[in-house]
Amino acid sequence: MKFITCCLGLSAACLALWGCSTPRTVSPVDAPGNAESGTTKLLEAGAALLQDKPPIEALNAYLDGFHFYNGHPDIQMEAHHYCSVLSEDAIQCVIYDGNTRSAKIMGVEYIIDQKLFSHLPAKEKAMWHSHGHEVSSGQLVAPGIPAPAEHALMQRLAHTYGKTWHTWHTDQDKALPLGVPQLMMGFTADGQANPAMVEQRNRRLGIDAAKSKAQRADIRVPTPDPQANGWQRGDVIQIVDPTGAHLHRPTRATPENTNSRSSR
């Protein structure tokens, strides 16, 4: 994954391109509790100045896409990925429900190249989803970087697989991370993603879906491993929530009014 390594080892100028030009997307929920006190803000500012944070600083790429609950393909949400490269063939991402300072961590995604994926046991493969359709359809985007750079990045991601767990289900009006982690999947064909959800994201980020799809027409998308995307075969793997707290509700779009909540 040479381009990804190069692109994720970003210069200051490229980082500015990646982050500053991206429209803001706020979290759909407010965390409970009192507002930060002056003492807490002072401690926070001091920590920001004095503490090194190498793992956090390594999160230098932003991808925006969509997930759905494994076994519940109609329950979908937008997912903001902040990623770092572990090797030429492995990436790790922290997933948020927005791209502002108040965004909530929804979960994690691990991304590996097809050659690593090919060596996994069949039962393990069923928990991973292919990225080919997300790339070719234009659903997966890297906001804020030049089109040629995004194209090269997507060309590599088309050959990868992701394993995703969500731990805080803010799409379900959960003000706290209640219940158990849920295995997530990605879309594999046209007509699966809620078109209103995708259109709302594209409008907010200023994405021309038809143009984006056309620009990626030359990207070769491999046939997914038949043992991946287990949900398509009825091989649904999910953790049963003993508390009964996890109730799947219909898709709720991210608020377009970024002034409705703090965008800190």
From TrEMBL:
<dbReference type="InterPro" id="IPR010686">
    <property type="entry name" value="OBAP-like"/>
</dbReference>
<feature type="region of interest" description="Disordered">
    <location>
        <begin position="243"/>
        <end position="264"/>
    </location>
</feature>
<protein>
    <submittedName>
        <fullName>OBAP family protein</fullName>
    </submittedName>
</protein>
<dbReference type="Pfam" id="PF06884">
    <property type="entry name" value="DUF1264"/>
</dbReference>
<feature type="signal peptide">
    <location>
        <begin position="1"/>
        <end position="18"/>
    </location>
</feature>
<feature type="compositionally biased region" description="Polar residues">
    <location>
        <begin position="254"/>
        <end position="264"/>
    </location>
</feature>
<keyword id="KW-0732">Signal</keyword>
